[in-house]
Amino acid sequence: PIKETKSIEEEVDETPETNNNEKILIDKKYFQRNRNWRETNAKLLIIATENNKGKKI
């Protein structure tokens, strides 16, 4: 079961900055705070890896 989390609007209130200090344009509903960014990507990678097991790439 998936744990209940904050709504997207509550969770998302900032975007990472690029080296030239311009905001990265990301659709906010797909963006989580920087501190959760790597963890989220790791989970997605694991899911993708599991889904691709036994399939030729």
From TrEMBL:
It comes from the Eukaryota. This is 13347_t:CDS:1.
